[in-house]
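A favour between colleagues. Tell me how you read the following sequence-structure pair.

===
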Amino acid sequence: MEFSYKGLWKILIDRDMNKHELQELVNLSPTTIAKMGKGKPISLVVLARIAKALDCDIGDIVSTIEDDFEEGKDA
C-alpha cells in the first residue's frame, strides 16, 4: 500500500508555502519530507503535528492508494 500526500501539497500551494517552510514550521527532518515525496508511510504522530500546524485534519493531507496486486490478494 502506498500513500498520497497530494492533499498536503495542495494545501501548501494554496497557502503559498513550500516544503522547506513546512519542514521548519513542524520541525520535520529532510528524511520525512523525502518519504512523503515518494509516497512512503510516515508516523501518525508526525501527521498529527502537520495537521495541527496547518489547522486541518489528517485526512486532508494524506490518503491511501491500493495497488492492483493487493486488491487481488484475497482471491
